């Protein structure tokens, strides 16, 4: 776990921020196993928050080839409920890596559309992971 002072960093681009119902640590550790990278975590206790258990995640970041923010919702805050959205990882890594990510995300989740060659010549597929996040993964040729 890193110091809360390391939590805020200069970020560029769009980074999803997911709000979980007590499973942020599990989700971020799962995504680190899938994508690699470094986790930076701070708990409610470290942030001096009293709107949830002290060991819940007040702010977490996965920094690496795929970047995500996540936290556990405090009392009365909404939690993750995704509909009509998917996270696209089209062409973001070598084909073999994308295939590994697809398989890892499917572990405990659901393959919605297998990663396969499409009529237009590219490979893609969709998988909903065990935390309810849907991913579109693909590559050229």
Automatic annotation (TrEMBL):
- Annotated ranges, domain Glyoxalase/fosfomycin resistance/dioxygenase: 19-135
CDD domains given for it?
Answer: PhnB_like
Put simply, this protein is called Glyoxalase/fosfomycin resistance/dioxygenase domain-containing protein
Q: Which organism is it from?
A: Microbacterium laevaniformans
Pfam families the UniProt entry points to: Glyoxalase
Domain of life of the source? Bacteria
Which SUPFAM superfamilies does the record cross-reference, listed alphabetically? Glyoxalase/Bleomycin resistance protein/Dihydroxybiphenyl dioxygenase (SSF54593)
């Amino acid at each position: 776990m890193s110091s809360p002072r390391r939590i805020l960093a200069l970020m560029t681009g769009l980074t999803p921020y997911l709000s979980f119902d007590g499973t942020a640590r599990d989700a971020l550790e799962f995504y680190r196993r899938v994508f690699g990278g470094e986790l930076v975590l701070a708990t409610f206790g470290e942030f001096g928050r009293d709107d949830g258990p002290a060991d819940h995640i007040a702010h977490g970041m996965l920094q690496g080839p795929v970047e995500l923010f996540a936290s556990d919702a405090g009392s009365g805050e909404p939690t993750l409920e995704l509909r009509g959205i998917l996270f696209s990882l089209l062409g973001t890594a070598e084909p073999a890596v994308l295939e590994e990510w697809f398989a890892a995300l499917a572990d405990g989740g659901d393959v919605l559309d297998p990663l396969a060659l499409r009529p237009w010549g590219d490979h893609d597929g969709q998988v909903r992971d065990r935390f309810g996040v849907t991913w579109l993964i693909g590559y050229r040729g």
